[in-house]
Write a structure and sequence with these properties.
about 0% strand, mainly alpha, about 100 residues, 3 helices, 2 domains
Length: about 100
């Protein structure tokens, strides 16, 4: 095989490896950013010291709904699942659903 062609192929291979490594690095950075944003949100919610109905109303507000809008059984189940997830995150407890 021609030396120039071989060099180009080697250069392509090295460049593709660098790109793959950088994509993996970027994925890790994005994951760390999301985790930090979630932690910041949790700290803010905990700082409000909401309990019971207040926490429920705030959770519904975050979900963009109100307790009287959640009437259909499928919609209600989905909303309840989301509330459990948010409550589990806020309380640092394992998720129920």
């Amino acid at each position: 095989m021609n030396k120039k062609i071989r060099r180009y192929l080697e250069e392509i291979e090295k460049t593709e490896k660098k790109i793959a490594d950088l994509q993996q690095y970027l994925k890790g950075i994005k994951s760390a950013l999301k985790e930090e944003e979630n932690n910041e949100m949790i700290r803010a919610i905990r700082g409000m010291k909401l309990e019971g109905e207040e926490l429920l109303q705030f959770t519904l507000y975050l979900l963009g709904t109100s307790s009287n809008k959640v009437e259909g059984s499928a919609t209600r189940r989905a909303c309840v699942r989301k509330r459990f997830r948010i409550a589990a995150i806020v309380a640092h407890q394992p998720m129920i659903c």
